[in-house]
Amino acid sequence: ALEVGRDLGRAMLNARALERERELVRELKALDDYKSKLIATLSHELKSPLTAMLANIELLQHGEDLDPSASEVLAAVDRGAVRLVRVVEDLLLLAKVGDPHLPLLTRPVPLHDVVDDVVNLTSIADQRRVSVDVVGDLDDMVALGDPAEMDILVTNLVTNAMKYSGAGSPVTITLARAGEWVVLSVQDCGIGISPEDRHQLFREFFRSDSAQVKAQPGTGLGLTIVDRILTRHAGRIEVDSELGEGSTFRVFLPAP
Ligand code: ADP
Questions:
Q1: ipTM, 2 decimals?
Q2: 153 lines ligand 1 (CB under 6 A)
Q3: Which residue in 226, 248, 253 sits closest to 238, CA to CA?
Q4: What's the rounded Cα separation, in Å, for the pair 171 and 161?
Q5: CA distance linking residue 48 with residue 24, whole number of Å
Q6: Can you tell me where the transmembrane regions are (predicted)?
């Protein structure tokens, strides 16, 4: 009877611990939902006055009789506002692709076209340093996904490759098939990433603590957005990098 009593007591304790754990998970989830809603609401509220601010700055900049010191101040305000708009836009995007209730509408997306569009939107100098390799049949380089999200994903990876490697340093984009996956690799010969930083790359707002990174504009949200888009698409990402040598980001997306 003593043994049975002990077993019963243990089972009750286990059940209580399990219930406490479930409650904690529910609370954490509610907090996370609250955080996402707060970020989305704040970003929405910030966007319109910021856009109006930018328009007004432009108006003033084109006005007559602007003395040089006022013009300098205005340029600084403009830079600040542009940076804020970038943060707000990234926050809105993150709230969107991080929302588990947002339906994913997929269709076959020719990745070569997405890459072409992204590269064509960069400066002529940047276009010169990019090469695009297709390993295999071009018709096979089709992923099942949301075209707008594919565009964001490729844009963020290619922009990073450009930002974190010197002007003129080559960037290679490769498309290949691996079984049921289409693999998009973006390789640069830039500053590289330390092993400690590699673990944190996909965390919200993470930026490496180096002068070369700080010298570039950025929000630390680009790779978080990439990661959320991949989660939505049941894809994944691998990173190979050597400090001072360069980095390769390899994305696996489902083929139709
Ligand atoms: P952002 O570029 O806006 O800072 P990301 O989320 O895109 O933010 O990247 C996070 C950080 O990861 C960057 O600040 C940088 O430290 C590092 N990183 C990303 N891509 C590269 C790359 N190709 N080479 C070196 N470091 C990179």
A1: 0.99
A2: no
A3: 248
A4: 7
A5: 37
A6: none
Question: Is the distance from the beta carbon of residue 159 to the nearest atom of ligand 1 less than 6 Å?
Answer: no
What pTM was estimated for this model as a whole? 0.87
Would you state the structure tokens that stand for residue 84, as one six-digit string?
A: 């804020």
Are 182 and 255 contacting, i.e. CB atoms less than 8 angstroms apart? yes
Closest residue by CA, ligand 1 atom 3: 218
Q: Average pLDDT over the chain, rounded to whole?
A: 94
Under the banding of pLDDT at 50, 70 and 90, the label for residue 3 is: confident
Tokens 């990876």 sit on residue: 157
Strand partners, 185: 174, 250
Q: Which residue has the higher pLDDT, 158 or 8?
A: 158
CA of 156 to the centre of ligand 1 (A): 9
| CA–CA gap between residue 135 and residue 152 (Å, rounded) | 23
Please classify residue 105 by burial: count the beta carbons closer than 10 Å to its beta carbon, then call 0-12 exposed, 13-18 middle and 19+ buried.
Answer: exposed
For residue 218, the ligand 1 atom closest to its alpha carbon is 3
Q: Is the pLDDT of residue 24 over 90?
A: yes
CA 26 remoteness from chain centre? 27
pLDDT 10s digits, 196-248: 999 999 999 999 999 999 999 999 999 999 999 999 999 999 999 999 999 99
| Cβ of residue 207 lying under 6 Å from some atom of ligand 1 | yes
pLDDT of 153 higher than 90: yes
Q: Exposure of 152 by Cβ count < 10 A (0-12 exposed, 13-18 middle, 19+ buried)?
A: buried
End-to-end CA distance of the chain: 62
Q: Is the pLDDT of residue 14 over 90?
A: yes
Residue 232 tokens read as: 């939505």
User: What element of type H or E holds 72?
Assistant: helix 68-97
